[in-house]
Amino acid sequence: MRNNLGPVAAVGALVVLGAGLSLALFWAPEDADQGFSQKIFYVHVPIALAAYACFGWGAWKALRLLWTRDQRYDLESYTAVHMGTIFGVLTLATGSIWAKVSWGIWWSWSERQLVLFLVLFLFYSAYFMLRYSTDPGPRRANMSAVYALFGVVLIPVSFLAIRLAENFIHPVVFTREGPQMAGSMFFVFCVCLAGMLLLATALYQAELAGKRLDARVRELREALA
Amino acid sequence: MNGYLGDVAALARTSLLLELRSRDTVPAMVLFVVSALVVFRFSLPADASDLAALGLLWIAIVFTAILALTRAFVAEREGRVLDGLVLATGDRSAIWLGKVAGVLAFLVLAELVALPAFALFFAPIGWETVAAVALANVGIAAVGTLLAAMAAASRARELLLPLLFLPLVIPIVVGGVGASVEPDPGRYLAFLGLYDLIFAILAWASFDYVVAE
Amino acid sequence: MIRARALERRFGEKRVLGGLDLDVAAGGFVAVTGPNGSGKSTLLALLAGLLAPTGGELEIEAERAEVGYLAHEPLVYRELSALENLELYGRLYRVPERRERIGMLLERYGLWDVRHERVSAYSRGMAQRLALCRTLLHGPRLVLLDEPYSALDADGARLLDAELAALAGERTLVVSTHDPERLRPLATGEVALT
Question: Average of pLDDT values for A13-35?
Fold first, then answer.
């Protein structure tokens, strides 16, 4: 079953995401306040949710590693965190574009989601620095797993912190009427979300397969040397 | 004192004894924090509010803490003492707790100078700030000690610690500044308490995995 | 007491120890020989539990607190005295009557007179003797020594000879060495790494 998941997810992603985006562009009603630019929402929020899902998956695999000491979970956890970071960067990018299109500025500290992703980006970048500067082995796997768990706990704590910080950072508050989601909008959103999650799955499987192949090649080369 | 707490006490005593012998960490922290406050004085415009200054106090505390944490496992790295301790302790979290006690002591000593210095250079501080600093110390020591052990096991060492630490310290700074600045400090102090509880438990439970294979 | 099958340890891609089978009975004395880089230290670290195998199986019928490990480094705080170091380890290992035991070991290894001096002031030979004290402090059933003779002077070596003779048969020993001849009389088995 594991061998089939990747290609199935890829095809699924293509179909579902393609459908979702088409629906978003052509079929979903335009938002009364923001007009066409609101449609970035159908891409931005699913990407953000996919990022959370990846970080959560990475933390789950990390927990499995610490629990069973089975080294194979290290690669899976790392790949999930990597995927999450990529989607995180995309969240920041799409969020920034949306801000520029909506209000004419590239960044806003009143956007909690965006600020949260900035903090997470810094955190998970440090994750990669940790991996990069430690020799591979059970030690690195353990430390990465612990750090990944810290990350997932940081998500709600940071969000709370950001909300509390708004009081004294005194941002210029741009009110974005969170889309009063008409039924049709919600439907398109769900389709896009499903498509994005399938895309994340497909990319995750692809990267995992690639890395495993890499490791196998290196092992063989070592054995032959 | 027997058992686990006895181990913790012995390890904490060792940390303090080492510092007493070498006397390098705490004086450096004190000098650093006072110098930082002076630099901040020059970097603030004349009409800057007391609130802005309090923000800078928290920055000074965080970076002074990083100084302490960078040195937290240096003595154990020389001669691979950490391996010896890992072999000797039944529950490795005792090593963490002993170290945390040491780091807390250093932080308090540095802050005994820093807070009066701040009051002298900038503006008087209220009980909320002191309470916030006390709570923040726990979070900083708990998380920082774990991360210091991670950094010690890597090749990058001192370079890695700030990178790992700063994202995790953001909530502490928010809680601390909020408690110092806002009219209702209770919320922020409660938040700091929550952070301490969650991350201290997490660090305590995961330290074993960081130092042993 | 020790059973290893196809024991393997990699560092990154580099395989330092591979496909090792090992059986050590309780009370046995195994000498581990081999050129530099053959994995002697790695094997001992694996047996001590400091490293986890990256492949194969390893079973050791001894608790962590029953194992004594001597590494290349002394594993003691340089800025503390011999007494302070052993006090700490004695506390952590829950050594009964630790004052007496520490005193006895320090005396046996000729460190009693310098017990209050910092380890940083010791010679290499003295530090190695202290490391031996640390290793044997808690009366371990399984004693792992990584090239114990390497830093010792003639006196220290003689002390170690006597100690090994006393331990052989009573405890299980695994000792790595460049000089197998020295251990031949006592050893019940030899493992040669390549």
Answer: 79
Number of domains in chain A: 1
Does the residue A99 lie in any domain? yes
Which chains neighbour C (Cβ–Cβ under 8 Å, 3 or more pairs)?
A: A, B
> What would the pLDDT profile of A138-189 be if each residue is shown by its tens digit?
999 999 999 999 999 999 999 999 999 988 776 555 555 555 667 778 888 8
Q: Which residues contact A41 (CB under 8 A, 6 or more apart)?
A: A98, A179, A189
Which residue of chain A has the CA closest to B185? Answer: A164
CB contact under 8 A, B209 and A119: no
Q: Could you report the per-residue pLDDT of B83-136, keeping only the tens digit for each?
A: 999 999 989 999 999 999 999 999 999 999 999 999 999 989 999 999 999 999
Q: Which residue has the tokens 């997932």?
A: A152
Are B51 and A158 within 8 A, CB to CB? Answer: no
Range of the domain at B198: 3-211
Query: Does residue A224 form part of some domain?
Result: no
Q: Closest Cα of chain C to B75: distance in Å?
A: 7
Which of A69, A71, A136 is opposite residue C12, by nearest beta carbon? A136
pLDDT surpassing 50 at residue B184: yes
Higher pLDDT: A111 or B4? It is B4
| pLDDT band at residue A2 using 50, 70 and 90 as cut-offs | low
Q: Do A143 and B171 touch (CB under 8 A)?
A: no
CA distance A18 to chain B (A): 36
At B32-90, the pLDDT tens digits run 999 999 999 898 887 778 778 899 999 999 999 999 999 999 999 887 999 999 999 98
Nearest Cα neighbor of B88 from B171, B185, B6, B182 is: B6
Residues of chain A neighbouring C54 (CB-CB closer than 8 A): 71, 137-138
Closest partner residue to A161 among B163, B174, B210, by Cβ?
B174
Amino acid at residue number A57: W
Among A138, A158, A161, select the one facing B213 at the smallest CB separation: A138
Which 99-118 residues of chain A touch chain B by CB within 8 A?
none
Residue A181: its pLDDT value, please? 67
Chain A residues within an 8 Å CB radius of C14: 222
**Distance set, CA C139 to CA A110, A159, B57, B176, C188 (Å):** 64, 53, 52, 50, 21
Give the least confident one: A37-46, B163-172, C160-169.
Answer: A37-46
CB-CB neighbours of C189 under 10 Å? 14
> Would you call C49 an interface residue with chain A, using a CB distance cutoff of 8 Å?
no
* A221: in domain: no
A222 class by beta-carbon count within 10 Å (0-12 exposed, 13-18 middle, 19+ buried) = middle
- Mean pLDDT in chain B? 94
Please report the pLDDT score of residue A76 as a whole number. Answer: 96
* Closest chain A CA to residue C16: A222
Give the total number of structural domains in chain B: 1
Cβ atoms of A102 and A176 within 8 Å: the answer is yes
Q: What is the layout of strands, in order, in the sheet containing C142-146? A: C67-70, C142-146, C172-176, C29-33, C189-192
> Which chains form contacts with chain B, at 3 or more CB pairs under 8 Å?
A, C
**CB contact at 8 A, C128 and C160:** no
Q: How far apart are CA B169 and CA B140, in angstroms?
A: 7
User: Within a domain: residue A225?
Assistant: no
Q: Residue A1: its pLDDT value, please?
A: 44
